[in-house]
Amino acid sequence: MTDALIAETITITAGNGDTVEAYSARPLDESPRGGVVVIHHLPGYDDGTKEIARRFAYHGYNAIMPNLYWRQAPGASPDDAAATARAQGGIPDEQLVADVDGAIAYLKELPNSNGKVGTIGYCSGGRQSFLAGVSLPLDAAVDCYGAFVTGTLPEGFPLKVTTLVDRTPNLSCPLLGLFGEEDAHPSPAEVAELADALKAAGKTYEFHVYPNAGHAFFSVNRPAYRVEAANDGWERIFAFYGKYLSA
Amino acid sequence: MCTYITEKVAVSGSAKGASGWMSVSDSSVYLDHPVHAPFGHTLNIDFLAPELGPSGRVAVELSQDSARALAKAIQAVLDAAPPGLD
Question: Whole-prediction pTM value?
Answer without folding.
Answer: 0.94
